[in-house]
Amino acid sequence: MKSITIKVFDDDIIEAIQQRATSSGESPGKIIQNILRKSLNVHKQELPKRDVSSLFNVWTEDEAKEFEEAVQVFEQIDEDMWE
């Protein structure tokens, strides 16, 4: 990735970037990069995720409750096994 130096920014622009960075937790550089991407219609190609995040929030509340009830037996301790 290359760098670009912009020597002059108006104070109101600097303040807006800093406020957005503070509220979003992103760096000012990342904020500026996102603004430029959006305004220039340049989209970063995202790599496919290699995790299980696509499986989150796919059950209904009833399905989740049914699952919790089904695995509740695994929470019980068999005292005879620990002797």
Describe the structure.
The chain has 83 residues and is mainly alpha-helical. The protein has one domain (11-78). It is 46% helix and 0% strand. The protein has 3 helices and no strands. The chain has helices at 11-24, 28-40, 61-71. 0% of the residues are buried. The model has no long low-confidence stretch (mean pLDDT 88).
Task: Lay out the secondary structure.
Blueprint: H1 11-24, H2 28-40, H3 61-71
Helix pairs in contact: 1-2
Outline: elongated
Query: What is the helix fraction of residues, given as a range?
Result: 40-55%
Q: What distance separates the N and C termini?
A: 62 Å
List the total number of helices: 3
Q: Based on helices, strands and strand pairing, what is the structural class?
A: mainly alpha
The H-and-E topology, N to C, reads as: HHH
> Which band does the percent of strand residues land in?
under 5%
Low-confidence stretches: none
Work out the radius of gyration. Answer: 25 Å
**E-strand count:** 0
User: What is the count of structural domains?
Assistant: 1
The average pLDDT is: 88
Keywords:
single chain, 83 residues, mainly alpha, 46% helix
Please outline what is shown here.
This protein is an all-alpha fold and 83 residues long. The protein has three helices and no strands.
